[in-house]
Amino acid sequence: MRTKGNRDSNMLLWTLHEPSTIALTIMYCLSFILGFIGNLMSLRVLTNRHSRRLASVSATRSLLVNLAVCDLAVVCVCMPITLGSQIYTAWVYGDLLCRAVPFTQAVSVSASVLTLTVISVNRYYSVRSPLRARSMFTRRRILATVAVVWTVSSIMCAPIAVMNQRREISFGTFAILVCQEVWPQHRLKQGYNVLLFVMLYCLPVTFNLTIGFLTGRRLWGGKKSTFADLDPRSQALHASRLKTRQKIAKMVVCLVLLFAVSWLPLYLADLWIDCEQRPPSWLLQTRPFAQWLGLTNSSLNPICYCFIGDLEPCRGRVAVFI
């Protein structure tokens, strides 16, 4: 027979009866299905035999593969456990996952935005100086750049893996284990979160939007009379390449804007919570939804590939990124 204390503890631990948890469960399930299928389809198209033959002229394709891997890691690792910890308050996944899940989320987000930065630079040079871009962005250099991106991301996010740990919280007659960041001083946590906000959000987003504007100005503001003296076949080839480059430029800007909109609420919520000794209850209640929005960014990126860029995995057609 259950005691009253056991019933009370179950009510505190399990949150399935709460409307916010029901809404989050539905939202996470939809995001997981969309992200899992979308990113697998993107990887299948980007890594097929045809695209590997075109690797020498397709640096953007290789970088998009890395971006899809980042997104798939967020969808498969972070989404299920984040939802599970929302449904059942106690942390039951062990100390390793307590450190690994937040670290995976941070590293994947960091690698995503840094990969977008490399893609933006690649597209700018491809428009400004195509021949130089092909010599700069070789397959070997792209692979080295991807390795640097993951290394830098891991170093920047290493404190998250160190500081996250399980701790016991008492609720009257019973106690539970939760997974939290435990810093020696609160100011250290504040400073680190501000550093991440500046290095992994403000600077990359500003830089990518700026270079996206410069790329767009060259693509849409160029002189069309330059190719007027070409034969019709050469003009058609140039028009086709220009259209492809414009589509890719739109896709990159859309990916950056989507990243900015998705992650800004969570960054601001965490910075606000760090500054308050007693954060408002509404802020604590809305933070899980802000985290869902940030994680859902990984599910929405394939939509940009499909409907804005020229990858179009939903129709199974592979474009040549030149």
From TrEMBL:
Topology with respect to the bilayer: Multi-pass membrane protein
The UniProt record lists the keyword Calcium: no
Keyword Transmembrane helix (UniProt): yes
Cleaved signal peptide residues: none
G-protein coupled receptors family 1 profile domain mapped to chain residues: 38-305
Gene Ontology molecular function, alphabetical: G protein-coupled receptor activity
GO cellular component: plasma membrane
Gene3D superfamilies given in the database record: Rhodopsin 7-helix transmembrane proteins
SUPFAM superfamilies: Family A G protein-coupled receptor-like
Keyword annotations of the record: G-protein coupled receptor, Membrane, Receptor, Transducer, Transmembrane, Transmembrane helix
Main location: membrane
Subcellular localization, as worded in the UniProt entry: Membrane
Transmembrane segments: 20-42, 63-83, 103-121, 142-162, 194-214, 248-269
Entry-linked Pfam families: 7tm_1
Entry similarity comment: Belongs to the G-protein coupled receptor 1 family.
Protein name: G-protein coupled receptors family 1 profile domain-containing protein
Species for this entry: Lates calcarifer (Barramundi)
Organism phylogeny: Eukaryota, Metazoa, Chordata, Craniata, Vertebrata
